[in-house]
Amino acid sequence: MSLSDVSVIISTADHARLRRIASAGMRIRRVPPSAQWLEAELDRAKVVSPSNLTENVISMHSVFDFQDGITDQVRRATLVYPGEEDQGIGRISVLSPLGSALIGLAEGQSMHWRGATGEWWTLRVIRVIGHPEARQKDVSAQP
Questions:
Q1: Over the stretch 1-52, which tens digit does the pLDDT of each residue have?
Q2: Residue 3 contacts by C-beta under 8 Å, 6 or more apart in sequence?
Q3: Is 2 within the bounds of a domain?
């Protein structure tokens, strides 16, 4: 699904929960490709503590802008867990091919990924706007 030279960084909290989601999908008799793709991204990710995750990296519930490599259209989206997705308002499930390509990418990184139809697509992360773990760091730093 992805290029091995594109590094992905995931917090320990996101990694643990996403590992459970991917593992559950891998136990299904006919394993869905989305579970395999997410599992592959988790296997190659650099895992860091939430306090060491930089604010320019897409984590769960991050709001970000990315550019579609085919149309050059810039879209704003939020990366969410399965069941929280809604394409109409830009909520992308991490269990979708696009979502598993986005997790752990930093601003400026590009990814070549295979969509559900088998076609190859390219995306580039423009900006991470909202980063939930950064807000948690800010709150914990206050007296």
A1: 444 467 899 999 999 999 988 887 666 666 567 778 888 889 999 999 998 9
A2: 111, 112
A3: no
Asked if residue 25 lies in contact with residue 135, where contact means CB atoms within 8 angstroms, the answer is: no
CATH code of the domain in which 102 resides: 3.10.50.30
Cα gap 108→20, rounded to integer Å = 29
Count CB neighbours of 40 within 10 A.
15
- Report field, pTM of the whole predicted structure over 0.70: yes
C-beta of residue 79 within 8 angstroms of C-beta of residue 58: yes
Domains in the chain, number: 1
Evaluate whether residue 115 is within a structural domain: yes
Q: Is residue 3 part of a domain?
A: no
